[in-house]
Amino acid sequence: MTRPATLADLRKTDWADPARYSRTVKDELRANLLQKLQSSEPLFPGIVGYDDTVVPQLINAILARHNFILLGLRGQAKSRILRQLATLLDAEIPIIAGSEINDNPFAPISKYGRQLLEEHGERTPIAWVTRDNRYVEKLATPDVTIADIIGDVDPIKAARGGHLLSDELTIHYGLLPRSNRGIFALNELPDLAGKIQVGLFNIMQEGDIQIKGYPIRLALDVLLVFSANPEDYTARGKIITPLKDRIGSEITTHYPLEIDTGMAITAQEAWVDRGGMPVDVPDFVAEIVERIAFEARVDKRIDNRSGVSQRLPISVIENVVSGAERRALLNREKRAVPRISDIYAALPSITGKIELEYEGELQGAGAVARELVRRSCLAAFEARAGGADCDAIVTWFDEGGALKVGVDERADMLVRGFAAVPGLFDVVEHTGLAGQQDPARLVAASELVLEGLVAQKRISRSDSHGYTRAKPERRGPPGGEGIDFLA
Questions:
Q1: Are 338 and 460 within one domain?
Q2: Which of 163, 329, 445, 457 would suit a FRET pair with 439, their CA atoms being 20 to 30 Å apart?
Q3: CB-based burial of residue 432 (10 Å sphere; 0-12 exposed, 13-18 middle, 19+ buried)?
């Protein structure tokens, strides 16, 4: 179907209905949201773990026609949520062709739009703007100016057009006017200088802006949405009180509340399917990787005000898969199956994503990261094999047995080594850790059992000697506190 190209053509469509062309952006979002709710369509695809917390608050804010702010730590999908708001807009809307601020053909607000309408009347050219182009996003930084957000007088426009500087046609519009009849998103709002935040007052309350003190009133139609990190209120800046008072809803985001939810997010976002060699990630390996983030978020040596982003487990699992992929290529194996040792090899993906407190700084990021992995292994081991009888394994090590595992060793070679440990394969089979009698999975499961026993202080592990008997001073009962060890 051909879209109307002139105002006369547009009048022959349902856009000529005042109820439609005079509808505000907030009313448009509200109507489309209600329609999606009635048809049970997914509202925010790809947003996992917010169905019972954040999403209902978002729905309420949109239905109430509120400007709102998403308040949360890094890596909580704030920007992704804001960008998905565009899906609640109409597929496209008509504007006066050439208008920088998306002038409504039936009610233009700029001098350019009004003049074009007066000159051409029903022959006024019409252009169409898609929903994606009606979403404007800006990252707030201290160097952002009023001109960037609101606009400024352009002397070059004045000179070329022969206009006075006070003429509205000399204005170079900022991002906010250019988002007219759409959504304007401002990320990290506290980083915006206070005097710039003041410039948002009028548009939020009275719906208009002024530029350079000239008596120019632009009655903009826009939904304003923001994001902020709670730490920013004191660390780098703050949201000034009058602006906070004008924000209709403050919605708090959060990290995954359950391990399964975190694993689902990581599986969705991580680049695991490399499109080449098949990758088979054991579920307990994925669980351990996710638990690292959960452990870090409660560790007192880590600055939790800064947050532990969901990007941590995503980066770790990608690194873990890369380690398994490299080993499979070196050994000419047909599948890449990650092991526990691959998680330790992925420590660089952890150390760069945690902010340490003073105690953590004394220990070092590497030591803290190793302990996070160890505690995660212990939790996964106890959840899956905590009741298993491992006495025969411990006895073998107590009697002088030792086992050194190479990160790049072939799976079939390691299976022969693990077979020398009495009871190890029995525990793996009894708990169903391997899932199938596959050498690569059997190795990964065996490593989990041994790491669990190390974390329980029933055996020891070091780079130089591998798995050995526990030192007397380190011996602990099953389920006891773990210790730090080299990986």
A1: yes
A2: 457
A3: exposed
For strands 459-462 and 466-469, give the pairing: antiparallel
pLDDT digits (tens, 9 = 90+) for 422-475: 999 999 998 888 876 789 999 999 999 999 999 999 999 887 788 999 876 555
- Same domain? For 286 and 193 the reply is no
Q: Is residue 12 part of a domain?
A: yes
E-state strands within 160-215: 171-173, 182-187, 208-209
Same domain, 159 and 232: yes
pLDDT of residue 205: 73
Q: What angle do CA 144, 103, 131 make, to 5 degrees?
A: 75
Distance (Å, whole) CA 149 – CA 363: 45
Average pLDDT of the residues of the chain? 88
Distance, C-alpha 285 to centroid of its chain: 22
Residues spanned by the domain of 143:
7-252
- Radius of gyration from C-alpha coordinates of the chain: 30
Question: How far is CA 187 from each of CA 53, 153, 249, 305, 486, rounded to the nearest angstrom?
Answer: 21, 26, 16, 19, 41
pLDDT of residue 239: 86
pLDDT at 486: 35
Where does a domain end: 215, 230, 252?
Answer: 252
β-pair partners for 6: 125
- Sign of torsion, CA 308 310 313 319? negative
Q: Is residue 2 part of a domain?
A: no
Number of structural domains (the chain) is 2
Q: Quote the pLDDT of residue 482.
A: 33
Q: Which residues of the chain register pLDDT less than 70?
A: 1, 154-169, 212-215, 231-237, 436, 472-487
pLDDT of residue 152: 76
SS3 226: strand
User: Is the Cα dihedral 438, 444, 447, 453 positive or negative?
Assistant: negative
> In sequence order, which residues have a C-beta less than 8 Å from that of residue 273 and are 6 or more positions away?
279
Specify if 190 maps to a domain. yes
pLDDT at 234: 44
Measured between alpha carbons, how far is 405 from 341 in angstroms, rounded to an integer?
A: 9
Specify whether 233 is located in the same domain as 149.
yes
**Within this chain, do residues 299 and 377 fall inside the same structural domain, yes or no?**
yes
Question: β-strands 182-187, 171-173: how paired?
Answer: unpaired
* Final residue of a structural domain among 252, 277, 310: 252
